[in-house]
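Please fill in the sequence for the structure shown.

STRUCTURE ENCODING:
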């Protein structure tokens, strides 16, 4: 099965993004027959497909057949052994949000296995893990790309890398980095009118599927803090972890420890006045409130939380659940380079992963 024109692909995770990725991989393999892309391993947390001969797993039916497979996933060390025991180059696609898989990236990379992933965990965990990943990549020559870990398929990471690599000086990065927070604030404090009560907007966002099953997982700000950690590190700041800078949680202290998301939603109306006052304060100044992240590169200040914006500001004028990311740099002067669009969704996120894979392929 081995040949220099064959690239083996291993996929961990077959949920919302994984399914779209497999479909895009199937189209890519048809459009670009060289090098031959061979799916040799696929797994979820319970089921797997692979063979000792690295036989090609059919791309179109891999996911639908997984539930009936009798194979279970290889332990990560065993997977690294399996994937590196062939002369073909291999790319691992991590479509999970698993910390355990993320922590194994240095192992895979040191075995010459390249990685493309939308998983934020590896790049926003400890600074040591970040260093281990990039030094393993530099030593072995295996590549690692993670475009969709910030802003899904929006070209946020590649743009920042290009700015830095071409010698521009990034002074500030600011934006709305969460589709959930974008949707919530665009309906709670629209530029055109008064908007609804905070608790009603949170419930609506949950009912429409914009929030995690427990909305507190969005409202604690950690997801945005992880994205800021990644961008700040790429801009050259040694951020130790997503908890090493101020992150404003929108969970009332009294509701932090209630047992379930449902109980949280039931009690949230009791705290509507807190967010209502914040909105009214902004309105008095002719502004609207938004949940943003910012990185001031010169002063090394990273923060996540509520800010007031003029109604005409691009951040205030955002629509739906879109993300917006502004790069202020020496070359762009006072008019930032702005990237805006859908920052979530299976297809656009998988697009970022597939384009990462194409970048890896061009370098193998
Ligand atoms: N969805 C989006 O819009 C979006 C946007 C940007 C970034 N992302 C990132 O993309 C990644 C995937 O998101 P998703 O929405 O596709 O999640 P998902 O629907 O929850 O799917 C996750 C998949 O990973 C599998 N998995 C989890 N832990 C695993 C493990 N330790 N070993 C093997 N398989 C494991 C799950 O298997 P089981 O079903 O068996 O548990 C499932 O197939 C996440 O890192 C997410 O943050 C997603």
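FILLED IN BY: designer on duty
SEQUENCE:
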């Amino acid at each position: 099965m081995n040949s220099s024109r064959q690239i083996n692909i291993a996929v961990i995770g077959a949920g919302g993004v994984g399914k779209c990725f497999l479909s895009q991989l199937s189209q890519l393999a048809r459009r670009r027959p060289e090098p031959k892309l061979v799916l040799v391993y696929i797994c979820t947390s319970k089921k797997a497909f692979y063979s000792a001969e690295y036989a090609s797993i059919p791309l179109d039916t891999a996911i639908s057949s997984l539930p009936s497979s009798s194979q279970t996933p290889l332990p990560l060390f065993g997977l690294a052994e399996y994937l590196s025991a062939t002369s073909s180059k291999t790319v691992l696609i991590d479509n999970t949000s698993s910390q355990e898989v993320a922590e194994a990236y240095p192992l895979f990379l040191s075995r010459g296995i390249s990685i493309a992933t939308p998983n934020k965990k590896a790049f926003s965990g400890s600074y040591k893990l970040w260093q281990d990943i990039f030094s393993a990549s530099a030593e072995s020559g295996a590549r690692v790309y993670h475009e969709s870990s910030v802003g899904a398929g929006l070209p946020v990471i590649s743009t920042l890398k290009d700015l830095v690599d071409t010698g521009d000086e990034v002074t500030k990065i600011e934006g709305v980095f969460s589709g959930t927070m974008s949707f919530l604030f665009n309906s709670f404090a629209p530029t055109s009118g008064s908007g609804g009560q905070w608790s009603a907007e949170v419930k609506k966002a949950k009912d429409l599927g914009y929030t995690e099953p427990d909305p507190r997982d969005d409202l604690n700000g950690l997801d945005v803090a992880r994205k800021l950690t990644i961008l700040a590190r790429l801009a050259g700041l040694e951020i130790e972890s997503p908890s090493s800078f101020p992150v404003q949680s929108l969970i009332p202290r009294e509701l932090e420890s209630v047992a379930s998301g449902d109980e949280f939603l039931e009690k949230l109306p009791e705290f509507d006045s807190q967010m209502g006052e914040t909105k009214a304060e902004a309105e008095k100044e002719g502004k609207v409130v938004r949940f943003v992240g910012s990185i001031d590169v010169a002063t090394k200040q990273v923060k996540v939380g509520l800010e007031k914006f003029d109604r005409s500001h691009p951040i205030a004028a955002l629509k739906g659940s879109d993300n917006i990311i502004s790069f202020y740099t020496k070359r762009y002067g006072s008019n930032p380079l702005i990237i805006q669009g859908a920052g979530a969704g299976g297809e656009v996120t998988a697009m970022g992963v597939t384009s990462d894979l194409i970048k890896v392929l061009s370098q193998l």
